[in-house]
Amino acid sequence: MDTTCFSESIYNLIPIDWKEPPQPPRYSSIFKTSVKEDMQKHKTAMKTMGPPKVEVPSPKDFLKKHSKEKTLPPQKKFDRNEPKKPPVPLRTEHPVMGIQSEKNFINTNAADVIMGVAKKPKPIYVDKRTGDKHDLETSGLVPKYINKKDYGVTPEYICKRNEEVKKAQEEYDNYIQENLRKAAMKRLSDEEREAVLQGLKKNWEGVQKEFQSLSVFIDSIPKKIRKQKLEEEMKQLEHDIDVIEKHKIIYIAN
């Protein structure tokens, strides 16, 4: 067999108008725009890369000669008639000495100590045998809070809150009582009970007659639905009739 003919026949099986199927569209989230706007809204300018635009210096603000040199204060005019500072004392001048006080500091200090009030030591407590000392007032061991005037008295805001809770409970109880009074039960008389019972039996007979008139072959979905509905109605009517026949006294809500 000729190989050239075989290869040509294989290649000829490929249709000439065959095209590559188009690629499916790339997925794009519907929240892309909102996320981009949120990122731009909360983005901090000049955080890592500096300001977005740098101001270019003006060509008029060029560096001039001696512009960074320190300037001296203006020179003052010398005046001979300006008052001078006091002269330095001479070596022959001596300060006034020999002044003595008649106050007896020893007796004065002793009188202050005798007449003064002794300083009370700071109350402390020791909690270890090694002698660790702590402040007694801030330890909570001193019963100073029970001696306050308002100790044990219920705060005003708690009393106000309790009154509000009590008032709300009373309003709720009144609302419940009013609803119970409106929804008072009423007893059916024997005539009304008999009339309701006869009405239910009559409805059951009508549903049963309609059920018996159905076709023998239930071969469609509407027929099946109709049959199921009639069976449920008959079952509910039978349950109601049974309840009324068992109970001689029946109450209903107004």
Automatic annotation (TrEMBL):
Q: Write one Gene Ontology MF term.
A: calmodulin binding
User: Bias regions of kind Basic and acidic residues — which residues?
Assistant: 76-85
Q: Carries keyword Cytoplasm?
A: yes
What does the UniProt entry say about where the protein is found?
Cytoplasm, Cytoskeleton, Cilium axoneme
Extract the Pfam families matched here: Enkurin
- Which PANTHER family does the annotation name? ENKURIN, ENKURIN-RELATED
Protein name, per record: Enkurin, TRPC channel interacting protein
Species = Mustela putorius furo (European domestic ferret)
